[in-house]
Structures are given as structure tokens and as C-alpha cells.
Amino acid sequence: xxxxxxxxxxxxxxxxxxxxxxxxxxxxxxxxxxxxxxxxxxxxxxxxxxxxxxxxxxxxxxxxxxxxxxxxxxxxxxxxxxxxxxxxxxxxxxxxxxxxxxxxxxxxxxxxxxxxxxxxxxxxxxxxxxxxxxxxxxxxxxxxxxxxxxxxxxxxxxxxxxxxxxxxxxxxxxxxxxxxxxxxxxxxxxxxxxxxxxxxxxxxxxxxxxxxxxxxxxxxxxxxxxxxxxxxxxxxxxxxxxxxxxxxxxxxxxxxxxxxxxxxxxxxxxxxxxxxxxxxxxxxxxxxxxxxxxxxxxxxxxxxxxxxxxxxxxxxxxxxxxxxxxxxxxxxxxxxxxxxxxxxxxxxxxxxxxxxxxxxxxxxxxxxxxxxxxxxxxxxxxxxxxxxxxxxxxxxxxxxxxxxxxxxxxxxxxxxxxxxxxxxxxxxxxxxxxxxxxxxxxxxxxxxxxxxxxxxxxxxxxxxxxxxxxxxxxxxxxxxxxxxxxxxxxxxxxxxxxxxxxxxxxxxxxxxxxxxxxxxxxxxxxxxxxxxxxxxxxxxxxx
Length: 543
Known about the structure:
Blueprint: E1 23-24, E2 26-31, E3 39-43, E4 49-53, H1 59-65, E5 66-70, E6 78-83, E7 88-93, E8 101-106, E9 117-118, E10 122-128, H2 141-157, E11 176-178, H3 179-194, H4 200-216, E12 228-230, E13 246-247, H5 248-264, H6 270-284, E14 302-303, H7 322-330, H8 338-345, E15 356-357, E16 360-361, H9 394-411, E17 428-431, E18 434-437, H10 449-453, H11 460-473, H12 475-478, E19 479-480, E20 483-484, E21 488-489, E22 494-495, H13 501-515, H14 518-524, H15 527-536
Parallel strand pairs: 1-9, 3-10
Antiparallel strand pairs: 2-4, 4-7, 5-8, 6-7, 8-10, 11-12, 13-14, 15-16, 17-18, 19-20, 21-22
């Protein structure tokens, strides 16, 4: 007998199908009647933003879905209106701040009248324009130059290190003082004394403090100074791991300043005579020829008591170090011969450029000139007017360099907001989150006031326009206790609040050379400088 089992197959109940959510989409964007993608610059403080969609929007969802915030996430108020049968939202901010970045966002929580949701969010980046009003009363050009020199001088005078008198590296450096920046600051003291910002007696007293510290306290290596020192003890503060000894280029900036001061304090009295003697002791102690590293036909930048010449960085042109070779050739105790200049600095002519950029031919240096401090640091003392040698005419070189930098900013090939005939100048400076040597080939959108202002002797019209713009139009953001802050970026609305000795010094010193030629006249009056430059093959009316 067989038994067969018979069973029923279980049938799963049919699940209800959930309909896919319906969405609607973004159609168009107009800011002040124009479409420019999702980034807008130079806006007024009450721009009208119209965002259109493929369906009418549900008013009740708009307030929670639309947000307007500044770069620091502060929520901004705005008015709402509707157009095109409610398919367009019209957003009008209550009143934005000038030169500020804002982000307008529309979230996917926005709903249409049929309860569809927005398919993708929208983000609009907006930067408001520069406030066109003057931040300070208009004054004469001479009064403005006086004001800029006097205010910037406070960095070296009021903020000078109390023990050594030397210039701090920057406004946050504590006891760290800088050799090159102190050289620039010494020249600023001379200019300030000449203009009666301080008395000659007070300027002499400060110079006695500085020179006494350099002669008796500061660490030296074969007569050369380190890049940074402790302003109390004179001990080296390493610039980097192996850079804990002599810095020949920084030393040359210091000597440029000291020789200028020596020529200025030329009185027959015991104090000024003693100051000159002490400066000569420091100057004559620098063993320039020793930095040829075994008699090579080139100078080397660094030497360390712990690492020797391990950095092994030759000083080649064209850059900021022409003054280093001029000082080395001018030494009465450790001079270098012309072959070191021709081979080491000029690379036997390889420093020549000759190309034309933005309609200006550049005699020397890298493409488009490099950062503008090349035209400043060595020429605080060296007068380029009528000066030439085998390789270039130096007034032509520096004017070309400054004009190329200016023309580049006016053309603004990278479309950075704010660059103009009034807002220009690329050089080494602080940037947001760091430091870089800005130039037309390394442009990150950061303008440094020192670049244009310190070029006054080369581009007086363009530089004066920039100075006025920085002071009158941006003064509420870039003008402080020690003159202009180091740098700013109008594209990102970043404004630095730092001041650096190597940027403040050239502002005072080159304004003075533009106005009176004082520092040029003093430095070029040094008999050993005349001899040294002639030995290198320079010719000119000041030699």
C-alpha cells in the first residue's frame, strides 16, 4: 500500500509598489540680472538673486531650505519674493558688508507645490565689492608720504627690541631679531632723523645701542652674522636645521645699513666719531673672501659651526643679492676679485634675459622678473640711476621689472578679483596659512603693499596710485599701528594682520630715495663702495 502526500504551495502576498519620489529641478540663476555660473565677485551690498525651478515652489518650505551665510558662518537676513507663477525665488539680502565672502545655499528639502523635492542642492558663492568711500580724509601727496614713512617707522622705533635696538623679524617674534631687516631699519632711522621724526641725538643713541650690541654681544662667524638672533643674548636662533651660523646675504643688508649710518653720522664730536669707528670694526671684520669656500669663483650663502658648508647654496644672480657681491668687492680687508662677480653672480652672462613681457623688455633675471624685492633690497643703498656694467643698465632693469609686475596685475590673466591699475604688486609676503615669494609666475592672488610702494623710484605714477588706493580705499582693513599690514587677498577676502621688518623697511627707505635720494647719496658716498663697484666694472655718475 503506498501513501502519497499532497500539499499546497504557499503563495507570498504581493507587496504594494512604492512609487519613486518625484523631484523637480533647478532651471536658471541670475545675480543682478546676469548669469556667471555659481561664483560672483564685486557685488553691491544688496544684490538681487533670482533662482528659477522647473515647478512652482511651496512657500512654506523656502525659509528652512534657503540660507545665506558669511565666510565665518554668520547667518545673514534676507527678503523673499516670488515670480514666474512661484517657480522663481527672488532673494534680496538686507545689507551685506563690503569685501566679504558669502555662501547662498538651497537645500534639497525645498519642495514644490505638488510636494516634489528638489533634485540637487544649489550653492552660490558671492563676494561683495570694495567700499568706494574714503576711509581717511584726503591729504596732499607729500603729507601722505610723510604719514606713511612716519607710521611705518614706528615698527623699527617703538617696536625695536628694547635690549639690542635691532628689528624684530615680525610683529609676533618676541625676542627674535633679524639681521637683514635690521639693516633696512638702520636706514629707516637715518631717514627718520633727516625728516625730524626723531631728533638726531635720539637717533644717535639708538644707533649706539644697535652697534654696541652687534660689536660686543651678537654671535658672528668669520665676521658674518646669522639670519636670526636672540635680541637679548645675541645667540643664533636657527633659521632652519642647518642654517645656524653665518648668513652672508643677510649680513650684506646689515652692512649696507651700517655704512649708510656711518656716512650720515659724520660729526666731529666724540660720540659720532666713536660710532663710525665701531661700525668700521664690524664692517672690516667680515671675511667675505672666506665664503668662496676654498677659493672658488663664487660666494656661498651659509656657513654653520656645526654643519660647515652643508647647505652648499651658491649666491647666483639675478635675485636680491647684488649687494652681497658689491659689499664683498668693497671690503678693505677681505675683498673678492672681479672674476668672482663675473663667474659667481653673473654666471658669465647667463643672468641676461632680453625677452619682452607685456610690451617691456627685461634685461636680467627670470621670466617676467620674479618677485619685486629683487628690485628693492640691494637698491636701498645702490643708486641704479645711470648705473651700468657689462650686463645691464640698472635703472632700465628695475623700471622694466616694476612695469612688468604692474602690467601683469592690470592684465590679471588668472582673473583674481581686485587686481587693477590701482591694486598691484607681487613680492615675497605672508599668504593665508603661509608665506611665498609671489611673482607673475607664482601668483596666488595676494597683493603686498610693499611691492608697489617700494617701487616708487621706478614707477612713480603707478606706485602713487597704488599707495593712495591702499590707504584711502582699503585703509580700514590694511592700515595699522606700524603702517600697512603685510598683504591681502581680495578674491578670498583675506586680510593679513602681520608686519615684517623686510617688508616695512623698504617702504620707508624707497619712499625716501624717491623723495630725496638721501640713502642712495649716503651709501654711494662711501669711498670703499666706489672703489669696489669700479673694480667690478660698474660705471655711473655716482662712482
